[in-house]
Write a structure and sequence with these properties.
This protein is mainly α. The protein has 12 helices and no strands. Helices cover 79% and strands 0% of the residues. It starts with 7 loop residues before the first helix and ends with a helix.
C-alpha cells in the first residue's frame, strides 16, 4: 500500500526481466556456435559489443541498487516518527530525490520498478497524489502489480475520488490473494460507504469476512457488518 514499508530484500527477490532475456540470448549464441562462426569477424564484433553492453547494464544496475539503499535508509528515517512535520517532509523529499536518481541510472526490470514504487510512496507521504499515481502506474504490469494497484486506490481515496479508488481496489479484490485481496476488499467497502452505498459496502465487508474469518481484521469486519445491517 502507499506508505507501507516494503523491505529491500522482499522487493529485490524477483528476477530482472532484462537480465533474464539477455541470458537467453547468450544461451542461444552458445548453442548455435557453428552458425555464429560463419559470420566471422562481423559476428564476433557484434557479440563483443553485446557483452560490453551487458556488463555496462550490470554496472548500472549495481549503482542503482546502491542509490536505492541510500534512499531506503532516508525513507525509514522519515517514518521513524519524529513528530516534526516539516522535518519529515524534508526527509521524504531527500528520499524521493534518491529514488529518482536510482531510476535515472537504471530504469529497467525489477530495479526500475522498485524505484518507481518508492517514488510513489514518497509522493504519497507528501500528499502529492497525482505524481504518486503516475509513479505507481508504471508498475501495473509486472511483479508489483498488486502493490501498485492498491497504492493507486489509496491515492484516489485520499483525494475523495472514490469511484476511481474502487476501480483500483477491485484489481486485488477480484484477482489478488491473501492480504492484498483482503486489503482490496476493505478498500472497496470503505469507498462504497463514503459514496453512501451501504448495501454494496455491507456485501463487500461480508465477502471479506467470509474469505478470511480468522483475519486480524475479522473483529473490525464483524463490527462493520453489524453496523451496516442496523
Amino acid at each position: 500500500m502507499a506508505g507501507k514499508k516494503i523491505s529491500r530484500k522482499q522487493l529485490l527477490k524477483e528476477p530482472d526481466e532484462f537480465i533474464t532475456t539477455t541470458g537467453k540470448v547468450i544461451g542461444f549464441l552458445q548453442e548455435n556456435r557453428r552458425q555464429v562462426t560463419l559470420y566471422g569477424i562481423i559476428a564476433l564484433a557484434v557479440l563483443a559489443a553485446g557483452l560490453l553492453g551487458y556488463s555496462y547494464f550490470r554496472w548500472e544496475e549495481g549503482k542503482a541498487q546502491n542509490i536505492q539503499y541510500q534512499g531506503l535508509q532516508i525513507y525509514q528515517e522519515a517514518y521513524s516518527g519524529t513528530g516534526n512535520t516539516e522535518k519529515e517532509k524534508e526527509t521524504f523529499r531527500k528520499a524521493l530525490e534518491k529514488f529518482k536518481e536510482a531510476y535515472r541510472v537504471y530504469s529497467r526490470g525489477t530495479i526500475g520498478q522498485i524505484s518507481q514504487i518508492y517514488i510513489g510512496n514518497c509522493h504519497y507521504a507528501l500528499k502529492e497524489y497525482d505524481p504518486a499515481v503516475q509513479a505507481y502506474a508504471q508498475c501495473l504490469e509486472g511483479p508489483f502489480r498488486a502493490v501498485a494497484a492498491q497504492s493507486i486506490g489509496y491515492c484516489y481515496e485520499s483525494k475523495g475520488e472514490f469511484a476511481k479508488a474502487i476501480e483500483n481496489f477491485q484489481i486485488n479484490a477480484e484477482s489478488g490473494t491473501g492480504s492484498y485481496q483482503e486489503e482490496g476488499l476493505l478498500g472497496v467497502a470503505r469507498c462504497y460507504e463514503a459514496l453512501n452505498q451501504k448495501p454494496k459496502a455491507l456485501e463487500t465487508y461480508q465477502k471479506a469476512l467470509n474469505k478470511n474469518p480468522k483475519s486480524k481484521m475479522a473483529e473490525f469486519m464483524q463490527w462493520k457488518v453489524s453496523e451496516l445491517k442496523g
